[in-house]
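Exam revision sheet. Question 4 asks you to relate a sequence to its structure. Input first:
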Amino acid sequence: MDVFIDRADCIYPWLSDFRFDSWHLNPDIFAVATRLQRGLRATFLGMAFNVVLACLKLAAGILGRSHALVADAVESFADIFNSIIVWRGIVVADAPPDEEHPYGHSKAEPLAAAFGAVMLLAAASWIIVKAVIQLPQPHESPRWFTLVVLTIVIVTKEILFRFVMHEGKATDNVAVRTDAWHHRADAITSLGAFIGISIALVGGPNYSWADDAAAIFAALIIGWNGWHLLRPAMNELMDSAPDPEVIRRIREIASGVGGVASVEKCVVRKAGHLFFVEMHVEVDPQMTVLRSHEIAHDVKDRIRAQMPNVSDVLVHIEPLGIAARGGESKK
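Answer key, C-alpha cells:
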C-alpha cells in the first residue's frame, strides 16, 4: 500500500490531459510517464468506468427485464475485481529485489494475468449456466431503453480496450493486456445482448428467448478469449523460452565483445517485462583468470546496456575447444 501511496500523485493529474482524437491518444501525455505509472493509469481509468457502467447495466437490466443485460452487468463487476488484482500485480512487480525475492517480483504480472484469464473463464461459465436455465422459461420481452444503455456501453468499452491495449503493448505488460481484453469481452457481451434484445423486441413474446441465446453466444466468445490469454501467462510462469529473436540478439551482442571466441550456450527466461540470461562463453584456454573475469563483466554490461529489459546476465567462462563437463548440449 505504501508503494501505491508514494506514486498516487502521478495518476490523477494525468486524467486532465486525456483526450481522444479519432480513436487515437495524444502522445504528449506519455513523454515522461514511467512503465509503472502508465500501467496504473490504464488500470484505474478502466476501474472507474467499470464501476459506472456496471451499475448502469444492472439497473437497466432489472428495470428493463433483460437477463442478458443483468448477466453483462455481473461480468462487469468481475472486471472490477480483476482490475484490482491487476493493480496489485503491477505494483508488486515494480518492487525491487529483496532478501526473500532475490530475482525481484516481476512474475507478479503474469500471475495477475493468469488470474484475470481464469476470471474470464469463470464469468463465461456463469453466464452460460444462467442463460441455459432461463432459456426454456417464458418471460417478458425486454424494454426498448436497454438498447440505449448498451449502445453507450459498447462504444465506451471499445475505446477503453484500444487505450488499455495500447498501454499494455507499449510497456510489455501481460497483466495490462489481459485487463484490456476484459474490456473487449465486455463490449462483445454487450453487443450480443443488443442483438438479442433487438430480436426479442421486434419479434415479440415468441422471440423472448433471443435475449438468453445472445448471452450464451457472447459467453462462448468470452471463454475463448480467457483461454487465449491464459496460455501466454502460464508460459511465463513456467519459464518458457522467449521469442527466438531475443536469444539471437543476446548471442550477437555477446559475440561482439573482445576476447569472446564463441557463445556456447544461451538460456533466457522471461518474468513480466524482464529477461534473465544464463550463458556459457568460450575464451582462449591460455587466458588468465583475471582477463576472463573482465570479459564476463564486459559481456554482461554490454547486453544490459543494449537491451534494457535484461535484468541480469550470468556468464560462465568455458575454455575454447574443451567440451563442457556433464555433456551439456549447445543451445
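Marking note for examiners. The CA atoms of residues 67 and 265 lie 58 Å apart.
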